[in-house]
Amino acid sequence: MFEFDNNTxxxxxxxxxxxxxxxxxxxxxxxxxxxxxxxxxxxxxNIPEAG
Length: 51
What we know:
Layout: H1 6-11, E1 17-22, E2 25-31, H2 36-46
Antiparallel strand pairs: 1-2
């Protein structure tokens, strides 16, 4: 189970929002409607074993 402090929710201004965390820190995010290719690229770039 993941736990986040209250500040995490406040940082999400729009939905959908996809956030990649590494070592408990936000590394990158994808905001708004995205194409399937953009979502796949997001995962390939941030989580290589997912690609």
